[in-house]
Structures are given as structure tokens and as C-alpha cells.
Amino acid sequence: MTQQIQPAEQPPNPAHGSSTAVSSVSEANSAERFTDPGLPPHRHRLVDVDPRAAKRAERQVATLFILSMIGTLGTLAAIIGIEYEGHNEYFDRLAAVSLSTKAIGFALFVSLFCLGVGAVHWAKTLMPDEERVDYRHRQRGTDAERARAVAILKDGVAETGLGRRPLIRNTLIGAAALLPLSALFFFRDTGPLPGTALEQTWWDEGEYLIKDPEGGRILAADVQLGSIVHVMPETIEEAGHDLLAEKGKAAVILLRLKPEELNPPAGREDWAVDGIVAYSKICTHMGCPVALYEQTTHHLLCPCHQSTFDVTQDCKVIFGPAKRPLPQLPIMVDEDGYLVARAGFQEPVGPSFWERG
Fold first, then answer.
1. Rounded to an integer, what distance in angstroms lies between the CA atom of residue 41 and that of residue 121?
2. Which CATH architecture fits 197-341?
3. 235-238 LR contacts (CB < 8 Å, sep 24+)
4. What are the helix and strand counts (H, E) for the chain?
5. Who's near 141: CB < 8 A, 6+ residues apart?
6. What is d(CA 202, CA 194) in angstroms, rounded to the nearest whole number?
7. 254 with 291: CB under 8 angstroms?
8. What is the membrane topology here (predicted)?
9. pTM for the complete prediction?
């Protein structure tokens, strides 16, 4: 639908002279120059004059909406049906992830593309396309004009043909109703639920600390003052197809300070070994790896959003958006002097954007 705006009359310019005759001539020329040309003759489309063409266009729109529904169902099938967690071999799992990503992308493209093209084809072929003139008026119309505007909107809804084209209406409802299901599955896969995965890590009593990634148990005597060591549980490789997820949760940093510099809270006096402490490497703000250590101040820094933790105060947050300290892993030494976990984490690791007791 096109709109034609009627131009307002232009006042005479005083700079061109003040003569009444000149002014009259200018006004006459202006009126003649801006004569309303009117609307061009309306050209009817084939669907406007041929009921069979209109029915054919209706079937085409409905077919596009049905293809959109199939695309949405294909997206769900790709999400559910293509398994990659069960592959133990790295390259097999990588190939399965690649296949899943391509299948989801193609099916979602079909769903959105056909829904959009169907809506455009519907508007181009079946909705009215008469030209109309809309005259300028005050910002707020009269009550009669406002009532007419409401009537025009109602007419527009009626002109879409939803009431008399149930095939289009029903297929559109089906395509629009199925489309959000894909988003539900995508949101579900954005991360683990806090009440399950993040409250359980691979760390447990008797689990030896090994260097990450080279491996090998760690002697307490080998940890130098002021050093930082990245560690993992010794048996983490037994996680199988969950190895990457378990490694992400179990990442720990090991530091050594002078014992008198530590100020452990009540009940945690024996969680360190001669100044050696172990904390979760996962920032409690958004889960980024905390790996920057300032030896002179004993501060740990998260590089993503600059949350800063004081190791001498049980990794208390002293700057940044994080809301709680890094969880501490209680450690001890065995009879041979190797570092071993006294127990697992006593609180969930990771971000704190969920309510936790």
C-alpha cells in the first residue's frame, strides 16, 4: 500500500518583492506548478481477478509454513538424535559435534527462512495492494478521526484474510508454535544445572594432586615459596566421555606463602600444608579461569572482569564483580610427602549467579 502526502501551500517570500501583482502571479504559478496529479490507474494482480491463482498462492504460502514446521522438527531431531557424548575417541567426538552443528544450523535455517518467505509471499500476493491518499492532519485527530483509525486497523486485520483463509491461519499458527521449542533446547544446553553438576567435582578424600597438563604427583617440598602450580586430580582420566566437563570443574591452583601470612577462618586451620593452599581456579563471577598471581600482594586476578581475590584472607573478594571467595580444597601430605586431598570441595565451584545457601 502506498501513501501520497499532499504538500502544504508555501507563503510568498518577502525578498522577492512586495508588489501585490507579483504576489498574485507567484501564488497562481505555485498553485499551477503543484497541481495534484492524482493516483495512477490501479493494476490488478492475477490473484485479484483469478480465484484459481489466489488459491494457488494460498497453497504456496501454506507449503512454506509447513516446511518451516519440518525445519523446526528437524532442529529438535538434530539436537536430540545426534549423540557425541558417548564417543571416547577425541576425533570421533569432534566429528559428531561437527555433524550436529551443521545439522542444527541447516534445519534452523530452513525453519526461519521458510517462515519469513511465507509471510512475505502472503503479503505480496494475497493482501490488498490498492493505493490510498493520506492527508496531513493535526497530531491528535478528532474523535471521529480516531474512531476511523481504529476502524482502518480492524479493516487491515480483516484484509489479511485470516478469517476466510483457515489453511494459512492454521499452518502459520503451527509454524509459530513449534519455532520456540528449538530455543528451549538451546537454553537447556547452555550449561549444567547448579543443583547437580557444579556441586560435584572429581575431587575426593585421598585424591592425589598432579601437575596440569604434564602430570605427576607433587611433593610438598618441591612447591617453592611464591610459586603457583596448576593441578588436577590424579584419576581424572577415568572420567571417560565426561573428561572435558570434569576437568573444567576440577581445575585447581596451588600456591605457597609463608605460614604466618595465612589467616584461615575457624575450622580451616588444617586445610593448608606448611603455607601451601589450594583453591578452585574457576572465578565465582562468570567462570573464567583465575590464573594471574601477584606475588608481592598475594592477590589472584581474573583476567575477564578483573575480580581480585586475596589469598592471605581465604581468597576473599577485594575488587571486582565476584560476590564470594574462591572455594578452597583442603589438602594434606601422605607418608611420602606427596600432596593429597583431605576431602572434596565443601561448596559448589563456579559462578554465583544462582541462589545458594
1. 24
2. 3-layer Sandwich (2.102)
3. 235/202, 235/207, 236/202
4. 7, 12
5. 149
6. 16
7. no
8. Multi-pass membrane protein
9. 0.50
Please say if the pLDDT value at position 353 is more than 70: no
Cell match 508454535: residue?
177
Is residue 213 reached through a cis peptide bond, with omega within 30 degrees of 0 on the bond before it? yes
- Give the residue from 243, 303, 255 showing the smallest Cα distance to 280: 255
Buried-state track 30-59, b at ≥16 Cβ within 10 A, e below 16? eeeeeeeeeeeeeeeeebbeeeeebeebbe
What are the CA-CA distances from residue 230 to residues 172, 246, 274, 349 (Å)? 55, 15, 18, 16
* Model confidence pLDDT, tens digit, residues 19-45: 455 555 555 555 566 677 777 788 888
Q: Which residues pair with 229 in a beta bridge?
A: 254
Nine cell digits for residue 90: 577425541
Domains in the chain: boundaries: 46-188, 197-341
Q: What is the pLDDT of residue 28?
A: 53
> Scanning the structure block, which residue is given the C-alpha cell 581456579?
281
Secondary structure in 3-state letters for the chain: CCEECCCCCCCCCHHHCCCHHHHHHHHHHHHHHCCCCCCCCCCCCHHHHCHHHHHHHHHHHHHHHHHHHHHHHHHHHHHHHCCCCCCCCHHHHHHHHHHHHHHHHHHHHHHHHHHHHHHHHHHHHCCCCCCEECCCCCCCCCHHHHHHHHHHHHHHHHHCCCCCCHHHHHHHHHHHHHHHHHHHHHHHCCCCCCCCHHHCCCCCCCCEEEECCCCCECEHHHCCCCCEEEEEECCHHHHHHHHHHHHHHHCEEEEECCHHHCCCCCCCCCCCECCEEEEECECCCCCCECCEEECCCCEEECCCCCCEEEHHHCCEEEECCCCCCCCECCEEECCCCEEEECCCCCCCCCCCCCCCC
Rounded Cα gap, residues 56 and 62, in angstroms: 10
Judge contact between 198 and 349, C-beta under 8 A: yes
